[in-house]
Amino acid sequence: MAKDTPLKLLATDADDLAVISAMLQDALVPVTEMSWRAGDGRFALVANRFRWEGAPDRDRQGAIRERVHAGLCFEQVRKVSRRGFDPRHGAGLLSLLAIRCEAGADGETVVELTFAGGPEVRLQVARIACHLEDIDQPWPTRHLPAHPDTGAEG
């Protein structure tokens, strides 16, 4: 993939979802940019995604990486539950760590979006039907995400 090519991915199984999870690791998600449309069975969010793909550019001061706004959408969502935050109580910014799925009751799948510090969103879906797409132009950043509790980057 060329460096300037916007990311556009589709997930229909757990392996596909693991790729999307990797591309969204350390994405910053404003609580106000998450939405569930129960009537449509759709959960969507807009994230400030760190572009892990590709080598960074360099200048005299070091590496220059990029961030980009990306849209994530799950279809056939039957139920959404949240833990550790309330979207009705103002703005907040969550750092996405991972997206995982597991078998749920009655043949459904449970998709978990886990955020730094413990908040999570759980989606009960009929099946995995998810897409991720960069929706804006990337911008430069020198900040490389790090996880202070482990001291590890990334």
Outline the structure in words:
The model is unreliable at 150-154 (pLDDT under 50). It is globular, with a radius of gyration of 16 Å. 7% of the residues lie in helices and 51% in strands. It is mostly beta strands and 154 residues long.
How would you concisely characterize the structure shown here?
The chain has 154 residues and is mostly beta strands. 7% of the residues lie in helices and 51% in strands.
Please tag this protein with its features.
154 residues; mainly beta; seven-stranded antiparallel sheet; 14 strands; globular
Secondary structure elements and pairings:
Blueprint (H helix, E strand, L loop, with lengths): L7 E4 L2 H11 L3 E3 L3 E4 L4 E9 L6 E3 L2 E13 L2 E7 L9 E11 L5 E7 L4 E6 L4 E5 L4 E3 L4 E2 L4 E2 L1
Antiparallel strand pairs: 1-11, 2-8, 3-4, 4-6, 5-6, 6-11, 6-12, 7-10, 8-9, 9-10, 13-14
Spatial extent as radius of gyration: 16 Å
Approximate strand percentage: over 45%
How many helices in DSSP terms?
1
The main pleated sheet reads as: 7 strands, antiparallel
Low-confidence stretches: 150-154
Give the tally of β-strands: 14
Q: What is the subunit arrangement here?
A: single chain
Helix content: under 10%
Q: Let me know the average pLDDT.
A: 87
Could you say which overall geometry the principal axes of the C-alpha atoms support? Answer: globular
State the end-to-end distance: 21 Å
Structural class: mainly beta
Spell the H/E element sequence: EHEEEEEEEEEEEEE
